[in-house]
Amino acid sequence: MNKLRVGIIGGGRIGKVHAQSITNLVPNATIVAIADPFMNENLEKWAKDKGINETYKDPYDIINHKDIDAVLICSPTDTHTQLIQAAAKAKKHIFCEKPVDTDLKRIDETMKVVRENNVLFQIGFNRRFDHNHSAVRDAVLENKVGDVHVIKVTSRDPEPPSPEYVKVSGGIFLDMMIHDFDMVRYLSNSEVKEVYATGAVLIDPEIGKAGDVDTAMVMLTMENGALAIIDNSRQAVYGYDQRTEVFGSKGCAKVENDRKSLIEVSTKDSVESQKPLYFFLDRYIDSYANEIIDFINSVQNGAEIKCGIEDAIRPVEIALAASKSLKEHRPVLISEVALSK
Ligand SMILES: NC(=O)c1ccc[n+]([C@@H]2O[C@H](COP(=O)([O-])OP(=O)(O)OC[C@H]3O[C@@H](n4cnc5c(N)ncnc54)[C@H](O)[C@@H]3O)[C@@H](O)[C@H]2O)c1
Asked: Under CATH, what is the fold of the domain 128-279+315-336?
């Protein structure tokens, strides 16, 4: 089989992670080129070391490249929709980082272009490809927990981002909790109907001045009747706290944090175990590889895309409903913000 020829747009944190996954783990794909407007000697050297021979400043050199079959869009969120539309028109298959955008109208127009051009599209909700969370989902699908009653997601970062980042991030719901909104849909196998959000600035007043909260809780009512709760904090002093639980009529499935080792030392004074892995690049590194392997398998072998167009749109609707709920101090129906009411 011919190798899939990939181009990467954006050579920052996540672009490098995906490039590394392909280079190290995917023998049936090759990275032809990487583009970044801030391409410099360091990034060029990094690319050459990874066996990527072509480097560009202009992302359109990737999009219009005749020897590229699929693009990975790993640039900042506000560049995604324009690049997706151009890539789809150039008949490239597309993997795009989350969130696809923060504006539902722009997302809708963009997804229309993707459909019209009949290219594959995957959105980067990597936690679906994590060994723990996917095991909880499997338990739900295998009916081990019965009818789903409660979904709980705890998601806390070890350290807050800078206020400058917060200002351009779209806020905690679109930037951080968006992963958890996806998780709730994924674990419950249902859609969100109503959202009730509350939030506070408890960690860094500068985050408040930047117009965001650093601590948030959201209660969700699902279309299948289940209830969900998500809690986010921008600072958990013990590390990246990532736990999920689904409780239902027949039982409960839950996962605790991943640790470097599972050792627990018990003495007369205490019971000690390892802290959670520090942050997302430690905790979720395998899931980033798994999602890219899956995308490449879909393009090459026609396997179903596991995280596609609907999965790109719904969490943004939920995030916008959560922002509205926080602002207006009331539960908000998804139908109040969704384009298709
Ligand atoms: N799935 C996840 O867990 C996860 C984790 C981190 C980031 N992300 C997402 O990935 C995207 C990038 O985040 P990051 O943390 O890698 O950011 P980053 O700032 O580290 O990297 C972004 C790169 O894109 C480049 N860039 C800027 N404008 C560009 C353009 N028009 N075309 C091409 N490249 C451009 C920048 O120079 C930079 O090198 C964001 O959408 C973010 O939300 C997802």
From this structure: Dihydrodipicolinate Reductase; domain 2 (3.30.360)
Q: Is 267 exposed, middle or buried (0-12, 13-18, 19+ CB in 10 A)?
A: exposed
Tens-digit pLDDT profile for residues 96-111: 999 999 999 999 999 9
Residue from 43, 73, 74 whose mutation best tests the ligand 1 pocket (most atoms within 8 A of CB): 74
Pocket of ligand 1 (CB under 6 A): 9-15, 35-38, 59, 74-77, 79, 97-98, 124, 126, 280
Strand partners, 192: 222
Token pair of 43, please?
Answer: 């990034």
Q: Locate the domains of the chain by residue range.
A: 4-119, 128-279+315-336
Which three-class secondary structure string do you get for 304-323?
A: CCCCCHHHHHHHHHHHHHHH
Question: Among 303, 289, 306, 296, which Cα is nearest to 30's?
Answer: 296
Between the CA of 9 and the centroid of ligand 1 the distance, in Å, is 9
CATH topology of domain 4-119: Rossmann fold (3.40.50)
Per-residue pLDDT tens over the stretch 211-242: 999 999 999 999 999 999 999 999 999 999 99
Asked if 200 and 234 touch (Cβ cutoff 8 Å), the reply is: no
Q: Is the pTM of this model over 0.85?
A: yes
The DSSP secondary structure of 217-264, one letter per residue, reads EEEEEETTS-EEEEEEES--TTS-EEEEEEEESS-EEEE---BS---E
Report the atom number in ligand 1 closest to the C-alpha of 125: 1
Residue that the structure tokens 């723990």 belong to: 132
